[in-house]
Design goal:
single chain, mainly alpha, 82% helix
């Protein structure tokens, strides 16, 4: 089956951006309202329980990504029999996963107190709250979750985005009403599982209408099962790495520094995560298209595409990094209050962390599309261990800065450095990795220089936080992008990437 990669990517990016706007604006409002109505402790519990359940989600072992990867080839070949068999396997696996997560989650109940340093809000039972969070995760697996894989593999993320936008908007609106008028935390969180059930039911119905020929039936050949088993093992290890990078940071801060510091950290990380989410719309929208391209195009063609996409992506990442450096403090002060701000050196650390995280995204996109999870297993194990050990050591020496430093060290050395070598060794092969590293060195140097100029200009803006934020935002829109164009305008990367981008914008076939 010939997937229209450009058409689908455009739709996925557009509707994914709409969904991301909803899922960023409402949670931001909810965080602000919760701090002012219930208090920072409640927000800290939100972050802690979400992080614990992220760790429990390791039980999923990466089956979803492995199944989606396994679907690329039969979809390209229009092999509906194998597609149905893979979906049937996915459904059975997810049924088991849901109950395993429920059992493991219940086993953690007696140990919840050990994850919290300091006081707990007196008017709530943390065990009841935790069980509601756990049930939300359980039902997300049990209720038609496997249907998402078909939409993702066919590059129809736009359908998922639209349904998520509707169901999440309803949930967020209800939660805001509860926080403003009822001020009851139990009622606030009960809307989470209700929204999850509604979302999964609608996605299942839409999937049946779009792909009526695809049913859960048949058996997967032993050879394909063996390949999936290998991919899943590698994915499990890689997922463990991602979880230790994000979820365990909050758990570590809560255990060593308390719920208030956890809330402050997550207020800052919320902004980082928002930018990550917006940029993930791009990579998620491209993933099935890149998978299709890897299935039918040459390695050299995909290598040139990767460099082109990487240039545009790092331009966006660099600009976002500069915005973080200049806008973080006034935004946090306006949103959550001056008492919720960290020192500026923490802001610099967060911005550097964001840039380091984005450096490997496009390379990681091609790694995932090529199914190189097993080949990445040792790199992922080393990154996980390094992150955990450095977190525990550095948080006691440097506090929050230590957590960020621990993640950055493991990211740069193991994720970006060794991760890039693995992709070039097993997929790009004949293409030079030194060129890729050199280009990233240039992108980083240019971004640092432009960031210094933009920060100097922004420092002249004084006044009330809202005025500072507005004028700095204007400077951040103009100065970095003008300087990026002046720096890159005559380079090969710029000419190739901009020419391609203009051609895509002129593409009328939708």
């Amino acid at each position: 089956m010939n997937i229209q990669r450009t058409k689908n990517t455009k739709k996925n990016v557009f509707w994914g951006t709409i969904n991301k706007f909803v899922t960023l604006l409402f949670p931001y409002l909810i965080r602000t309202i919760m701090i002012r109505t219930l208090g920072a402790d409640y927000l800290g519990l939100n972050s802690l329980f979400a992080s614990i359940l992220q760790v429990l989600n390791l039980t999923e072992l990466g089956f979803s990504s492995a199944i989606i990867y396994s679907l690329y080839k039969p979809i390209a070949q229009n092999n509906e029999e194998l597609i149905c068999a893979l979906l049937n396997l996915y459904r059975k696996i997810y049924k088991y996963i849901g109950f395993i997560i429920l059992a493991l989650g219940l086993l953690l109940l007696p140990f919840l107190n050990y994850f919290i340093q300091g006081t707990i809000p007196l008017d709530i039972n943390i065990y009841v709250i935790y069980i509601i969070y756990l049930f939300n995760t359980f039902i997300s697996y049990e209720l038609y979750a496997y249907k998402n894989s078909i939409l993702c593999a066919y590059q129809r993320n736009d359908v998922i985005s639209n349904i998520n936008t509707i169901t999440q908007s309803l949930m967020y609106f209800a939660q805001i009403v509860v926080l403003l008028y009822i001020k009851n935390y139990y009622i606030y969180i009960i809307f989470m599982p209700l929204s999850t059930m509604l979302n999964n039911l609608i996605i299942s119905s839409c999937c049946n209408k779009i792909f009526p020929q695809i049913k859960c039936k048949g058996a997967v050949p032993l050879k394909v099962k063996s390949e999936i088993k290998t991919k899943v093992t590698g994915l499990m290890i890689n997922k463990l790495c991602q979880t230790t990078r994000n979820a365990l940071d909050s758990i570590c801060i809560s255990a060593f520094l308390g719920l208030i510091i956890t809330t402050k950290y997550n207020n800052y990380f919320f902004i980082i995560n928002a930018l990550i989410g917006v940029m993930q719309v791009i990579t998620n929208s491209m993933l099935a298209g890149v998978g299709n391209s890897i299935a039918i195009e040459t390695q050299n063609k995909n290598y040139e595409d990767m460099l082109k996409f990487n240039f545009l992506y790092m331009w966006i990442a660099g600009w976002c990094t500069i915005c973080l450096l200049c806008l973080y403090q006034p935004f946090i002060e306006i949103s959550f209050g001056k008492n919720m701000t960290f020192s500026y050196y923490i802001v610099v650390a967060f911005a550097a962390y964001f840039y380091a995280l984005k450096m490997g995204d496009i390379r990681g996109l091609y790694s995932d599309a090529a199914g190189l999870w097993w080949e990445n297993r040792y790199r992922a194990i080393a990154e996980s261990l390094a992150n955990i050990i450095l977190n525990i050591i550095l948080v006691q020496i440097c506090g929050v800065l230590g957590i960020i430093m621990a993640t950055m060290i493991s990211l740069l050395v193991l994720n970006f450095g060794f991760g890039s070598k693995i992709v070039f060794k097993y997929y790009f092969k004949n293409n030079k990795i030194n060129i890729y590293f050199l280009k990233h060195g240039v992108y980083f140097s240019v971004t640092v220089f432009i960031a210094c100029i933009t920060m100097l200009a922004c420092n002249f803006v004084q006044g009330r936080p809202i005025i500072v934020l507005m004028f700095r935002l204007l400077l951040c829109i103009l100065i970095p992008n003008i300087l990026y164009i002046l720096f890159y305008r005559k380079t090969h990367d710029f000419i190739v990437a901009i020419t391609w981008l203009i051609n895509q914008l002129k593409y009328k076939k939708c």
